[in-house]
Structures are given as C-alpha cells and as structure tokens.
Design brief:
166 residues, 2 domains, 5-stranded parallel sheet, 2 helices, 11 strands, 22% helix, elongated
Length: 166
C-alpha cells in the first residue's frame, strides 16, 4: 500500500469520526494536511517516483495534458517522434530507453502555464528551437556521439521546457 493512499484513507476516517461524534478534528486536520504538503514540496520529495511512471511502447507520442501531471517512460524499439501539449500542466517524458526509428526524430513541445522535462538518451544529438514568453526554454544536453538527432521545436508561455540527457 502506498503512503499517499494510506494518508488519504486515515484522513477520511478521521473526518468521518469527527462528523459522527461532533468533534472539531477537521479544524486541525486540514491545516496539518496543508503543512505536510508544504514540507514535501520544500524537501523536494515527490508523491510518485519514476519507478511508478507508466511505461509505453508507442512509436509516435501524441499527448495533450490539461490541469494534470504527466510522467511517462517511452520504451519504443522504433521511436519516430511526436507532439506534446501541456496546458496548466507539467511533468516528464523520459525517452532514455527509446530506440530511434530513423536518424532524424522530430518532437514538438508546447507548454502554457506549466513545466515539462524531456529526457533524451545520452548518445543522441539535440537540435532545439524554442521560444519562451515569460518562461524558459532550455537545452542542457551535451553533444551526443550517435547519428540520431532529436529535432525539438516548441514554445513555453508562462512556463518552462527543459531538455536533458539521461
């Protein structure tokens, strides 16, 4: 059982007990929950780890995420690129285990009011063209040795896109 599931279960039980016996527990539980979430954010802990991220073998990625979080690992043996749109959303796309279908992999990334981290395999070269409006568009990869080139085009409006190597 995950920690988050356990915490939510206990929280709901305490709310029920508080309502049943007319106790003012909710007055204390809600602020404690907010404090707990704040501590988790400040300490850098995530509620889910990369091990629990869904794995996909799709060859072409086509994701639209709105008001949500996306955390996906692509394990395609024939990856061809794709498009990712994140609106009031964020997350990670991990391509570190993807095998390129051709030498030129096109990937389009659009982020509005959110943040997205794109993880590229170490050997791939990256050519990025990005526009940032009140945000950031950053390529932190070093030149790869492989023939494979990931052409990443996109924009970040009031958000950020970060491209890193595994």
């Amino acid at each position: 059982m995950s920690t988050a599931r356990l915490a939510i279960g206990i929280f709901l039980i305490l709310i029920g007990v508080s309502a049943l016996f007319d106790l003012p527990l909710f007055r204390f539980l809600f602020p404690l929950l907010i404090i707990y979430i704040g501590i988790r954010i400040l300490s850098g802990q995530r509620l889910e780890t990369d091990d629990k991220a869904p794995r996909s073998t799709e060859d072409i990625i086509n994701e639209v995420v709105i008001f949500s979080e996306m955390d996906k690992i692509i394990k395609s043996e024939n990856f061809k690129g794709g498009k990712i749109v994140a609106l009031f959303a964020g997350g990670r796309i991990n391509l570190a285990q993807a095998v390129a279908a051709q030498d030129d992999i096109p990937l389009e990334v659009i982020v509005i009011f959110g943040g997205l981290k794109v993880i590229i395999p170490k050997g791939w070269k990256v050519k990025s063209e990005g526009v940032a409006i009140f945000g950031g568009y950053e390529n932190k990869t070093s030149g790869g040795m492989s023939e494979t080139i990931a052409h990443i085009k996109g924009s970040a409006i009031f958000g950020g896109v970060q491209i890193v190597s595994d």
